[in-house]
Amino acid sequence: MRLKITYKKPQVLQALRYHFISRREIKLMMILVNVFALLAAALFYFKLITPLPFLMSSVLWLCMMVAFWLWLPWLVYRRSRTFKDSFFINIDENHLTIETERSNKIWAWREFSNFIETPGFFHLYFDSRSFFLIPKDAFDSSDDIHKARGMMREKITK
Questions:
Q1: Which of 14, 49, 99, 153 supports an S-S bond with 43, CB 3.0-4.6 Å?
Q2: Is the distance from CB of 152 to CB of 107 less than 8 angstroms?
Q3: 98 phi, psi to nearest 5 deg
Q4: 133 and 123 in contact (C-beta within 8 Å)?
């Protein structure tokens, strides 16, 4: 299967948000900050604390949301040349090949540690921090998406 890949900025930013929000340590941190904010709100409501801790928890929550929802995806998008290039991907039984004007890169399926499917992309992970995005809109039909999904499930073992 041969795909022409061209990334669209809003879709890539959303995929990067999925990546950041799906990380275990970020989920844990979000839960802790939300519990802290709710606890501070309850204690402030019952007049057990001054407004400062409530304000601090609200600012902390807001900063965290801005960081994970806006700043980090934008920063990764801006620094990565991959998202600005157009190239071809060949998906076959043994390999995933990327062809650009400058070079080719071949990855055997065993080199990927995991994959996640989101509404717009397949995230192919090499390790917990490095991954490759394949947009679903690059596929010609939903049958091709289904075929690629099956191949990834079969070839990429978790």
A1: 49
A2: no
A3: -110, 130
A4: yes
- How many Å from the N-terminal Cα to the C-terminal Cα in the chain? 23
Distance between CA 1 and CA 77 in Å, rounded? 27
Q: What are phi and psi of 8, to 5 degrees?
A: -110, 130
Q: Rounded CA gap, 105 and 80, in Å?
A: 17
**pLDDT of 16-35, one tens digit each?**
999 998 889 989 988 988 88
Any long-range contacts for 151-158 (C-beta under 8 Å, 24+ apart)? 151/91, 151/93, 152/115, 152/122, 152/124, 153/115, 155/93, 155/109, 155/110, 155/112, 156/109, 156/112, 156/113, 156/114, 156/115, 156/124, 158/113, 158/114
